[in-house]
Write a structure and sequence with these properties.
Number of helices: 9
Number of strands: 10
Largest sheet: 5 strands, antiparallel
Length: 329
């Protein structure tokens, strides 16, 4: 192996002579090995070993040049195969991202959208379970989608961490992986106590909106030694970005729908109030319409009295005792 290591480091041929017993043979004979590195650009992608096991041999310059011919052909073939696989992978990923963008744009609510995204991630090689958590209006992370095949939500890492380190998860700005023994995480101490930590390989992918984290995706493999390579991480981050765009679109649509419903409700309330001439009935109508317009469980209306205090004139959603006491003031 030292000859191979030297060929890789120097990117030049290496000739060594060693006992034939190293090849599994018997006796006290010697053999000679010519090691040629397969160099593509500035990278060594392999080595070709030429071994003469019968007797020591001195590989001449012409021998080395002759051996370099098939080595060069192997270099071209291997590099072409790598570029072809890379092109295929990129084409597949681009097609997947286009498909996901179209699919997510048709979702009407956040949970179904992120569940659809989780199913796409689940279809990737070596992914067994996926959970998505997104910040709610109170900036707390909530489970917003999932696709589970081998485990239940209760035993997934993300719900476990949300109950112990919600603020730490929300600070993620880049993807981080966690395998058995991994400690390079902002929540490593919490993850170390996760019961299945040694039995799974995890990747936490942030969902970013304008560079700020609004959620996180847990991608889990039941193989604890599973490694997510940089290309996979890049694809998952692109999928998370698609989710962030769809989330923004759905959130905006929902906000607009609420605004329009309130405007319609205000128009109805204005008509109801304009047709009311009785003062007490008018005040009752005001609190009722306010509760419906802003979706509030309780509304009260108080007016100043001659004594400088405020008297309760109308209420909805409050106990009768509270209303009597306030009106008696």
């Amino acid at each position: 192996y030292s000859a191979i290591e030297r060929a890789v480091q120097t990117q030049r041929q290496v000739i060594v002579t060693y006992p034939t017993t190293a090849l599994g043979g018997s006796g006290s004979g010697l053999c000679t090995q010519l090691t040629l590195p397969i160099v593509a650009g500035d990278r060594v992608i392999g080595c070709v070993l030429w071994v003469e096991p019968r007797a020591p041999r001195e590989f001449s310059g012409s021998d080395v040049r002759l051996a370099q011919t098939p080595t060069s052909q192997a270099t071209i073939a291997l590099e072409n195969a790598r570029l072809f696989r890379q092109a295929q992978r990129q084409a597949h990923e681009q097609a997947l991202l286009r498909q996901v963008a179209i699919g997510l744009s048709n979702a009407t609510d956040i949970f179904s959208m992120f569940t659809q995204l989780a199913r796409v991630i689940q279809a990737l090689d070596g992914v067994d379970n996926t959970v998505v958590a997104v910040q709610d209006e109170g900036s707390s992370l909530r489970i917003s989608g999932m696709c589970l095949t081998t485990r239940t939500l209760e035993v997934m890492a993300l719900p476990y961490l949300l109950s112990r380190a919600p603020s730490l998860l929300s600070t993620l700005t880049r993807s981080v992986s966690a395998r058995a023994g991994s400690t390079a995480l902002p929540f490593a101490e919490h993850l170390a106590a996760y019961p299945l930590h040694a039995h799974v390989s995890l990747l936490f992918v942030p969902i970013l909106r304008r560079g700020e984290p609004i959620g996180v995706i847990e991608v889990a493999s039941d193989n604890p030694m599973r490694v997510f390579d940089p290309q996979e991480v890049q694809l998952l981050e692109a999928l998370a970005n698609q989710g962030a765009i769809a989330y923004e679109s759905i959130s905006y649509h929902q906000r607009e729908q609420r605004r329009l419903r309130r405007l319609e409700r205000l128009q109805v309330s204005s008509r109801n109030l304009s047709g009311q001439l009785n003062t007490n009935m008018l005040l009752d109508t005001i609190v009722r319409e306010a509760a419906q317009t802003f979706d509030l469980p309780a509304v009260s209306l108080m007016t100043p009295s001659d004594e400088g205090t405020y008297a309760l004139r109308a209420a909805i959603g409050l106990s009768e005792r509270y209303v009597r006491e306030r009106r008696a003031l």
